[in-house]
């Protein structure tokens, strides 16, 4: 028998899981997401979240409460009489009363191999730290920060050419399949839970824009991982001729020189050790572009310098 579920999520990352649960016959009693925010060309039009847009197309009731801590919010949540809640990047803390409301509990899809990278930005942090792999895990939620017992996991190698967006998209699809399998096991009474290890705990703090400036004195691979871990948002940047330039994609290259120095006419840039070649850039106020297009608008001579 399919489960009666409450789905709680907000960004693009969450949408494939919602769609897969529906496709596999589960009944979505309600969708909880964050309230619309001003957006559009003039910033005046309220923009619903990607999850709300998907839920409206499915004809599922959508709720956007500002808090879940009031008696009224709890009563409304309980009234859906859900077997379980599925939570994917919802962005709001669930109090214990909410966690206890569904008959079988609340289950979170987290984009890391817990207990590594608990917290807000696991995808970015895994790339920036030079991790060899990432993954997704289904966790039965408790009131801690990603501390609940884990049920199932899928692993994925992180390559040097992978940006945060690349990893985000692959983990989103992988996670949707994993959650569907977890809910099938839960329905059968066969979902096995295991306590998280206390060894290897790390925290994925929210990305601060102050972290985005590139430090060319670091080794080339560290520079590359820093750039890719922040691509496309907020975007790692450097200054060139007193203008800010975001670097969105690069690759390791041969060469040596002063950190930040342009080594050739293919945008090979020296680092503290080794060099990287820039592939995709974005000048301040301009659209993102490939290196060849960038050079047509900003011809650079060997010896020019990114700072």
How is this structure best described in words?
26% of the residues lie in helices and 26% in strands. The protein is an alpha/beta fold. A hairpin with a 4-residue loop joins strand 14 (268-270) and strand 15. Helix 1 runs parallel beside helix 6 (164-188) and helix 5 (122-128) runs antiparallel to helix 7. It is elongated.
Short description:
By secondary structure, the protein is an alpha/beta fold. The chain contains eight helices and 16 strands.
Question: What's the arrangement of secondary structure elements?
Answer:
Layout: E1 4-9, H1 15-23, E2 27-32, E3 37-39, E4 45-47, H2 50-58, E5 62-63, H3 71-79, E6 84-88, H4 96-100, E7 106-110, E8 118-119, H5 122-128, E9 133-140, E10 150-157, H6 164-188, E11 203-204, H7 220-229, E12 236-240, E13 243-253, E14 268-270, E15 275-283, E16 288-290, H8 291-297
Parallel strand pairs: 1-2, 1-6, 2-5, 6-7, 8-11
Antiparallel strand pairs: 3-4, 7-9, 9-10, 12-13, 13-15, 14-15, 15-16
Helix pairs in contact: 1-6, 5-7
Which terms summarize this structure?
307 residues, 8 helices, alpha/beta, 16 strands, seven-stranded mixed sheet, 26% helix, five-stranded antiparallel sheet
């Amino acid at each position: 028998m399919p489960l009666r579920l409450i789905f709680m999520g907000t960004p693009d990352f969450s949408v494939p899981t919602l769609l897969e649960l529906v496709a596999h016959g589960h009944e979505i009693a309600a969708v909880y997401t964050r309230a619309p925010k001003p957006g559009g060309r003039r910033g005046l039009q309220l923009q619903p979240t990607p999850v709300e847009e998907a839920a409206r197309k499915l004809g599922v009731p959508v709720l956007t409460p500002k808090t879940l801590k009031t008696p009224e919010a709890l009563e409304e949540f309980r009234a859906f009489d859900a077997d379980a809640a599925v939570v994917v990047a919802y962005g709001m803390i669930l109090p214990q009363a909410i966690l206890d409301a569904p008959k079988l509990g609340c289950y979170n899809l987290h984009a890391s191999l817990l207990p590594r990278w608990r917290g807000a930005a696991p995808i970015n942090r895994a790339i920036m730290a030079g991790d060899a792999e990432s993954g997704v895990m289904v966790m039965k939620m408790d009131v801690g920060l990603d501390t609940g017992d884990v049920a199932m996991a899928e692993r994925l190698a992180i390559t040097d050419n992978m940006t945060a967006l690349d990893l985000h998209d692959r983990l989103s699809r992988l996670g949707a399949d994993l959650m569907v399998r977890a809910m099938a096991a839960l329905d059968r009474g066969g979902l096995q839970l295991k306590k998280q290890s206390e060894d290897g705990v790390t925290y994925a703090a929210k990305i601060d824009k102050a972290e985005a400036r590139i430090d060319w004195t670091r080794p080339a691979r560290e520079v590359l991982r820093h750039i890719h871990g922040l691509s496309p948002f907020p975007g790692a940047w450097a200054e060139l001729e007193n203008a800010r330039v975001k670097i969105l994609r690069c690759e390791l290259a041969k060469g040596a020189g002063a950190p930040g120095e342009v080594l050739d006419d293919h945008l090979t840039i020296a680092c503290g050790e080794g060099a990287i070649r820039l592939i995709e850039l974005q000048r301040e106020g301009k659209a993102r572009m490939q290196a060849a297009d960038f050079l047509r608008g900003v011809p650079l001579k060997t010896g020019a310098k990114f700072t």
